[in-house]
Specification:
Blueprint (H helix, E strand, L loop, with lengths): L11 H16 L3 E7 L13 E7 L2 H4 L3 H6 L2 E3 L8 E6 L6 E7 L3 H16 L1 H17 L4 H25 L2
Parallel strand pairs: 2-5
Antiparallel strand pairs: 1-2, 3-4, 4-5
Helix pairs in contact: 4-6, 5-6
Amino acid sequence: MKITVVEYDPNWRNKYLKEEFKIKGILQDKLINSFHIGSTSIPNLKAKPIIDILLVVKDINELDAYSVQFENLGYEVMGEFGIKGRRYFRKGGDNRTHHIHAFQYDHIQEIERHLSFRDYLRQNPEICKEYGELKSRLADEYPTDINSYIDGKNDFVKKIEKEALQWHWIHR
């Protein structure tokens, strides 16, 4: 998989909304809420052009019964995929287009982490720019090595997550 970081595309929001509509059609009353998260949800942030979706569901175990419906939308069903209590889905194979991160409503730590990070970057353009430049540099340095790309972002992301969670509780 080639790692490509591009300039922000305002059409990413429409791509999210289109996918959200399909997901709501599948899950109906099992879904509490959904959110556009990740870099494509942050205006002016350079990003890999992959739409990240956060689903908050009533019962995470009930989500497993919808695997075929997600596969019919083109998703790979990945289970927890390294995060206990999550259900992860990815779409697009080597040309990934979407990721879904689903959590039960009471898995507050993961839900808040994603939303706080997004909202904090939306409110801090200088940090947003710094993050975008880091991602561009790493994509140039490791164009086919996703693990090195992720490792290269890790310290920055952890630092910003911590700031974002504190900021969230101050501005709540």
